[in-house]
Amino acid sequence: MQLGTLTLQNPICLAAAPWQLDGAGYERLGAIFTRTVTMEPKPGLYEEGIWQVNEQTLLNATNMRTESAEILVQEHLPHLLSYGVPVFVSITAPGIPGFRKIARFLAREVGSQIAGVEVYIAQPDTEKGAELNAKFVREATQAVRNELGPAAAIVVKLPPWPEHIRGLALGAQEGGATALAATNVLKALHLPDDATAEPLAGGLSGEALRPVALRCVWELAHDARIKLPIFGTGGVFTQSHVTDYLRCGATAVQVASGEWLEPGLSARLAAECSHLVPANL
Ligand SMILES: Cc1cc2nc3c(=O)[nH]c(=O)nc-3n(C[C@H](O)[C@H](O)[C@H](O)COP(=O)(O)O)c2cc1C
């Protein structure tokens, strides 16, 4: 997969990589995407905020903790870079100035070490109930592009909204994105068996997300206006899930839930799928 000037050696990428990634085979991955960092750390839940809804479906609590970009740079990035594959730092911010600030920090501190960033697009924090729209995506992407410069790869990760994803993707493209990732988690509610327990609000990932994410990839790949390569993200557990995404128009995939449920899965898939490069990409 060609991402600007960067060539990914394998279609399998690890998303939301655990900070303490450990084990063999990760050097075969196409790329490693970090967990999302923010400029200021955000308190909240960590691993204890991830519930297994069923065998291969997870729910991430809404109030997940995020580390600061500074901690990422000082404590976690050197380890992730040690695998020798391109590393993308996932970033988010409540508004455009926040995206500019964190991108400026990363460009200054580690711009020459990372392959680029993944822009996690979330609801703008305007306190006015503003909806996420293409203008916000374009401006956020543009702000990051301006700070990181033309050589960095910028992957914009979009929400799992098949009806709206093409408009948001066009915003990313106009803002200077290098690639798209489809998709992020789907807002959902899980009711624990205990009828007295509070419903759990969070983001759904894994098996249950895959058909929605496949549809999103398909929508993007079948819009002639959208020229960017696409990472298929959602419920990848097997090689046949990888080929499903490629059939729908993705050029690579990201694995998050699969790795969380079975550490080492992304490395194993990368070994199994190395023949998919470069013929099918
Ligand atoms: C344990 C866990 C942590 C995650 N953390 C992040 C994160 O920090 N930033 C992000 O953009 N997505 C995060 N995600 C979402 C994934 O990157 C991915 O978009 C989504 O889970 C769908 O892929 P999957 O079905 O393979 O998990 C996380 C997902 C999981 C399961």
Automatic annotation (TrEMBL):
Its cofactor is FMN. The keyword Flavoprotein applies. The keyword Secreted does not apply. InterPro entries: Aldolase_TIM, DHO_dehydrogenase, Dihydroorotate_DH_1_2, Dihydroorotate_DH_cat. Residues 7-259 form the Dihydroorotate dehydrogenase catalytic domain. Pathway: Pyrimidine metabolism; UMP biosynthesis via de novo pathway. Keywords: Flavoprotein, FMN, Oxidoreductase, Pyrimidine biosynthesis. PANTHER family: DIHYDROOROTATE DEHYDROGENASE (FUMARATE), DIHYDROOROTATE DEHYDROGENASE (QUINONE), MITOCHONDRIAL-RELATED. This is Dihydroorotate dehydrogenase catalytic domain-containing protein.
